[in-house]
Amino acid sequence: MGQNKREQWGSKFGFIMSSAGAAIGLGAIWKFPYVTGMSGGGAFLMLFILFTILIGLPLVIAEFIIGRGAQTEAVSAYRKLSPKSSLKYTGALGVVGSFLLLSFYSVIGGWVLIYSILALGGRVIGNGADYPGLFERITGTPTIALLGLAAFLLINIAVVSLGIQNGIEKASKYMMPLLFVFFVMLVIRSLTLEGAMEGVRFFLYPDFSAITRESVLYALGHSFFALAVGFSVLVTYSSYLGRDVSLPSSANSVAFMNIFVSLLAGLAIFPVVFAFGMEPAQGPGLLFMVLPAVFSQLPFGELFLAGFLILFLFATLTSSFSMLEIIVSALTAGGKRTRRASTWSLGVVLFFAGIPAALSFNVLEGVLLFGRSIFDLTDFLVSNILLPLGCLLISLFVSRRMDPKITEKEFMVGSISSGYYIVWRFLIKWIVPATIILVFLNSLGIM
C-alpha cells in the first residue's frame, strides 16, 4: 500500500478521542484508584499529576512526532527516520510488547465483559452475595475465563477490521464521551452519600508523611504506563494524522483527559468506600470485590454498578484497539495482506496466546515460572521490563537519533511557542531518560 493511500483520521477530535482512549484504560480506572489507596491518597495524586506532565506528556509528544514525521506504521517509522541507527528496532519491540500485553490484557477484559453482562442482568448484587466467591468462579472456571477472552477479542476484531475511520475512530468518538458522562453521574451519586467527604479529603488532601520512596517511584512508573507510551501505539495512531494538526496541543488534550479521568475515578470510588467504612488500600480486588459490596448498599446499586462496569469496559476496549492496531498496521504495511484477513488471523493467534494467562487462575494455577504464575510473569515482563525499555528507547531515538530539523518542524506546526519546544527538548533528552532508568532499576529490584 503506497504512502498516498494510507488512511487518515476523519477529524482532529476523532484522533484525540482515539489517542485518549488508547491511554485511558486499566491504568486510569482499575490500577490508579487502588494504588492511590495503598500509597496515602492525595500526596500520591499530586506526584502522579506532576510526573504525568514532566515525564508522560513529553513521551506522548515524542511518539506523535515520530509517527507523523515518518507517515508509516511503527516498525518502518524508526528505520525510515534513522536507517543506520541501532535504535531502528524500537518499533518492532513495540509490536512484540503489544502482542504480549494484549494476550493477558484481554483476559482481564474478558472478566470485565462478563461482570458487565451479569450486572446488567441483576446477577452480581443480591442478598448474601459472595463477592470474592463470584470473582473466583469467573477467574477459576476455565470455560468462563476462555469464553470471556474470546468474546473480548471478537469485539476488538470487529472494530479494528473496519479500519481507522469506520472502526477505531467511530467507536472511540462514541465510547469516550459516554465514559465521561457515566463517570460524572457516578461522581455525583458518590458525593451525595453521608460520610463521602472523608473519601474526598483522603483523595485530594496531600499527606506527605504517607509518601515513601516506593510510592514516588511507583508514581513515576504509573505516569507513563497510564498514557500508553512505550510500545509505539501512538506512533502508529499519529502516522494517520494530517500535517495541519498541532501535535503538542493534541498531546496536552490526551494528558489532560487522562488526569481528569483519574480524578473522576478517585471521586467515584473513594467517597463510596469511606461512606461505607471500607478500607481504601484493598489492592487489585477493589473493583471486582469491594465495589460490588459497596454498591449493594445503595438504592439502585445494581444500576450504578452496571454503569461503572460498562464505562470500565469502554475504557478497556479503546486501549486494546490501539494495541491490536499497531500489530495489524505492521502486518498490512507491505500491501500484500488485507486489514480484515490480518485482523481475524491475528485475533485467532492472540486467543491461543492468551489461553495460558486465562488458565493461570484455574488448571494452570500450580505452574510457576521464576516463582510467578504465567499471568503474573507476562505482566511483569511487559510492565516492568519491556514498557520502561520502550519508553527509554523512544526518548533516546527522538532526542539523539532523529533529525532535529524534523522534530522541530513537526513540533512547531500550529504556531506553538519556541520556548515550549526548548523545554520539551530538554525534558526528553535528559530528564525523561534519567527518570526511566531510575524506575527501570527499581522495578528490577536493583535499587
Automatic annotation (TrEMBL):
UniProt entry tagged with the keyword Transport: yes
Name the predominant localization: membrane
Question: What UniProt keywords are attached to this protein's entry?
Answer: Membrane, Symport, Transmembrane, Transmembrane helix, Transport
Q: Which GO terms describe its molecular function?
A: symporter activity
Q: Which SUPFAM superfamilies does the UniProt record give? A: SNF-like
Q: Which PROSITE patterns does the UniProt record give?
A: NA_NEUROTRAN_SYMP_1 (PS00610), NA_NEUROTRAN_SYMP_3 (PS50267)
Look up the domain of life of the source: Bacteria
Q: Please give the start and end residues of each transmembrane region.
A: 12-30, 42-66, 87-114, 144-164, 176-197, 217-242, 254-278, 298-331, 343-361, 381-399, 420-441
Return the InterPro entries for the record: Na/ntran_symport, SNS_sf, YocR/YhdH-like
Q: So what family is this one in?
A: Belongs to the sodium:neurotransmitter symporter (SNF) (TC 2.A.22) family.
Query: Known PANTHER family for this protein?
Result: TRANSPORTER
The name under which this protein is listed is Transporter
The organism encoding this protein is Metabacillus lacus
